[in-house]
Amino acid sequence: MTANHADELLARSATDALLAEAALTPKPGLPDTREADFGALRWSARSLAPGLAAMAAAARRTDGGPSRGLREELGWIGRSTERSMARANAGTALHHGAVWPLGLLVASAALEPGAAPDELPAAARRIAAFPDRSAPRRPSPGGSVASRYGAAGARGEASAGFPHVRRALAALRTARQAGAREPQARLDALLTVMCTLQDTGVLHAAGPQGLRQVQAGARAVLDEGGTNSARGAEALRALDVELRTRNLHPRGSAHLLAGALFVDSLKCRTPTPR
């Protein structure tokens, strides 16, 4: 599937969103500009661009709306992109899990070029509703944890129309209207996601108790006025130390924030003729 310039622009917007999320500092328990391997994070994000462009191309060339065929093609491209990312990073998939939300949102933007950005999560839900007959039969660690604890997981998030992407977008608007600087608005959006997301990575590492700690800590920062306030910034630093000490890394929240930043970046796009 050959990608055109519009597909490549969507892919670049998605990787830029992933890099914007990675650059936020300090992010509680998550890699950021303080990390020695931030260059590797940048390289990892850029390695996703060809796969994301291919997803956009697949959606753009679809005859009609969402279908099982499109869903299965996106699944095949996504798994191939994950493998390519791992090869580009010496066997380590630094952005493992990011391809699923970003790929669905990029495909939705290409499939429905006239849609308003805020409508893309619902469009992604319509794609995700179809089964993928080629998906691995062996459940992933995240899928196993989701089943064990009754969490929505990545698939449930997509099937519900990415509610946490929508919450992050609302948090961005609220923080900006309140006069927050852009980094603080984005950090507040991240914390908003962390408050309620049943992050299967955290559940896998530390069970329900660890997840409650992440959620309560994020809520405490927002209750102190968010990261744009002195008390909120202090609470954020304390939460960061706490999560790093306990080796808790809410990567699922980071990936959904990147999805929200991608959708947010499309506000001024010009619809592309099909």
Overview of the structural elements:
- The chain is an all-alpha fold and 274 residues long.
- The protein contains 13 helices and no strands.
- The protein has helices at residues 5-23, 38-46, 49-60, 68-88, 99-111, 120-128, 141-149, 153-159, 163-177, 182-196, 200-223, 230-245, 251-265.
- α1 (5-23) runs antiparallel to α5, α1 (5-23) crosses α13 and α5 (99-111) packs parallel to α13 (251-265).
- It starts with a helix and ends in a 9-residue tail after the last helix.
Figure out the total of helices: 13
Residue ranges: pLDDT <50 for 5 or more in a row? none
N- to C-terminal separation?
A: 16 Å
User: What structural category do the secondary elements indicate?
Assistant: mainly alpha
Mean pLDDT: 89
Q: Which key features would you list for this structure?
A:
274 residues, mainly alpha
Helices, strands, pairings?
Blueprint: H1 5-23, H2 38-46, H3 49-60, H4 68-88, H5 99-111, H6 120-128, H7 141-149, H8 153-159, H9 163-177, H10 182-196, H11 200-223, H12 230-245, H13 251-265
Helix pairs in contact: 1-2, 1-3, 1-5, 1-13, 3-4, 3-5, 4-5, 5-6, 5-13, 7-11, 9-10, 9-13, 10-11, 10-13, 11-12
Structure in a nutshell:
The chain is mostly helical and about 270 residues long. The protein is about 65% helix and about 0% strand.
